[in-house]
Structures are given as structure tokens and as C-alpha cells.
Amino acid sequence: MNVRKIFAERTLIKGRYIDVSLVVSIILLWGLGLLLLYVCSAEYGKKQFSDAHYFINRQLIVSGVGVLVIIITTFLPQKFIRKWLPVIVVGTLLMCLLPFVSIFSDPRNGANRWISLPFGGETFQPSELAKIAVLLFIANWFDKFVKKPEDRYRSLFPPLIVLSVFSGIVLKQNDFSTALLIFFIGLLVIYVAGGRLLPLIPFFFLMIGYAILFVFTSEFRVNRIIAFINPNYDTHGGNYQVLRARTAISDGGFLGNGFGVGLDKFNLIPENHTDYIFSGWAEAMGFLGVLGYFLVLAFFAWRGYTLMMESKNKFSSLLAFGLTTSILIQSLVNSGVVCGALPVTGITLPFISYGGSSLLVTCCMCGLLLNISYHNSIEEIDEV
């Protein structure tokens, strides 16, 4: 059966193939992000660009592209994805190296995480793509090469090498939190895939060792750790954002102050439309609003893990687990930082934080999850 015929047959009754509950959870999180971005960025946009709609307009443009990304990745045949996976992995690897090339690099705050795009002065963060490339490689590897229990040991090294290479490059970009996230989620997927625990233990301790070394060789990161341990340290520097965010969250109380109330105070928080946007929701909607957000996030995670359990092949199952876990952990880490429960990182809040790279990659992840639900309903196991 050729690709055109597959598309024709499935799209005729595609409603029965798509997980409607997952779609609803995505729309809810996405819509919340757009609403919150406008509320939290209007004053800042007015002050910096004389346009209260500056950030929301740009995010809406990216959202339009994101819808297209979701549609394409939802209906793209898994055979096609897996056939071109080497190109995807190598292409992503090369993109992650571009920030080190001066003509492409757009360094900020001592980090080489972004590349300049040839239109409109826009930038892109390739490490976001690395999150997907690593998950695709690991899922495909264990489905294709690990067929027997005795294969689990000798087949560990290729995915561990790929995982280490991508994490190392992102770490070299001075993006510690993203590198740690990629490595940790990759290890989780390898373990869930049936990788033996004993060979993974050295890599786990290696990750901890590198993390400690990387933190304590940077005065900036050491100050962040001290600020996390001692809230009264550097209240006008490293702890300023966290203290302002805590104030906004506590002022929200149980029911919240409502949108449009107290936002002049909230806009004193640096990057309030990016990393610390969650505090705006907490201030406006209070404890009930925060609970509502986590219920929607839990609903999304439930649907993602359900896809994992219902998948007809290991590739889909592992990919669903990795994608869902990645979005879930990012969300929990970001909200934990804003609440002061975790040290400050640069992890964005999926669907909600301002930024084209984060939103487009989140859309790609969601499209792949919908792709899995689409393929789960047909009697086909893709083999390459």
C-alpha cells in the first residue's frame, strides 16, 4: 500500500483516529498561554516597543506556524519518519553546532544557545530540537535492534553515545539546565525500554558529577545555589526574580486578584513573559487557578501515557513516554523554580512562556503524540 493510499484511507475517517481528549488538553494549555502572555506582556510591550500587543502578535504568528507543524507531524507516516531519522539526527546535530559559528551565532549573556535566522532578525534555539531528535533515535533503536532480552546490554551503547554527544554540545553552549533535562529524560526512556539498570548507574553518577563540577566552576551558578538555600541572599540580584514571583503568588491568595489587578507590581519581575510567566497566573487566579492548571497538565499527561500503553509497537510506546515526560518535567521544573522550590534555571514553561523555539518544538512534540494516536487505531506496525 503506497503512502498516498494510506493518507486517503485514514483521512476519510480521521476523526476516529485522533485522540480528542489529547487535542482538548493541548488547546486548553495553548489558549491559557496566549491569554496569560497578553496579560503579562502588555505593559512591558508598551514601555519597550510602544505597542501593548507586541509580544502577543509575535506569538500568534508563531502559533499559526505551530498549527501547521502539528498538522504535518500528525499525519506524517511513521515509516517516513523512521526512514529519514538518520538525516533528522545528523541535521539536528549540525544545527546544534551552528551557535559556535560566528556568522550564525547570536550570543547572549555569555551563552551560545541561539542562531540568527535570515529573516526579520529572528533567532532559533537548536537545543530545543535536540530534545526530539534524541527521543526519536532512542525509540527507534530499541524497537529495531532490541528484540531479545540478551540484546539489552550490548545495544545500550549507541543510544548512550548519542545522548551524551547531544547533551555535551548543549552543555558547551552554556545551557546547563537543558543539557541536564535531555540527559535525564534520555536515561529514563532507555530504562523504560528495558535497558539494564546496572550499566546505567555509572552514567547516572557521571551526570551528577558533571553537574556538580559545572555548577561549582561558575560563580554565577554558585550564586544561584546560595540564593536558593538562603532567600535573603542577593535580594537585588540573583534572588530578585524569585522574591518578586513569590510576592505575586502569595498576593494571589485562594481566589486570585483577577486579570488587570496588581500587574504594575508584577511587571517589576524581569522576564515576566518568559521564564516567570507562571507567577502571573498564580497572582491573577490564586490557588484555584494554579490547581486548575495542574489538573489540565495532569489530564494531558494521562492521555500521553495512555497512548504509551495502547501503542502497537515499541517505537510508538517509547516515543509517547519520552514526549509526554519531557513536557511534564519541563512544566514541573519551571513552576517549581517560580515558586522557589527549585534553584533558578532557564527552563521555559511549555505552551505558555514567550518564545518561538519553545512553542514550535512543543507543537512538534504534540503533533508526534497525535501521530501515535492516529497510528494506534490501525492494524499496522511500521518496520524499517
Count of DSSP H/I helices: 16
Show unreliable segments: 1-16, 261-266, 379-384
Give the N-terminus to C-terminus distance in angstroms. Answer: 15 Å
Dominant shape? globular
Order of helices and strands: HHHHHEEHHHHHHHHHHH
Strand content: under 5%
Major sheet, described briefly? 2 strands, antiparallel
How many β-strand stretches? 2
- Neighbour order of strands in the largest sheet: 1-2
The helix-and-strand class reads mainly alpha
Structural notes for this entry:
This protein is mainly α. The protein has 16 helices and 2 strands. Strands 1-2 form a two-stranded antiparallel ribbon. A hairpin with a 6-residue loop joins strand 1 and strand 2.
Task: Summarize the topology.
Layout: H1 3-12, H2 20-49, H3 54-75, H4 78-83, H5 85-97, E1 115-116, E2 123-124, H6 127-145, H7 151-154, H8 157-172, H9 176-192, H10 197-216, H11 219-229, H12 240-252, H13 263-266, H14 277-310, H15 314-338, H16 356-376
Antiparallel strand pairs: 1-2
Helix pairs in contact: 2-3, 2-14, 3-16, 5-6, 6-8, 6-9, 6-15, 8-9, 9-10, 9-15, 12-14, 14-15, 15-16
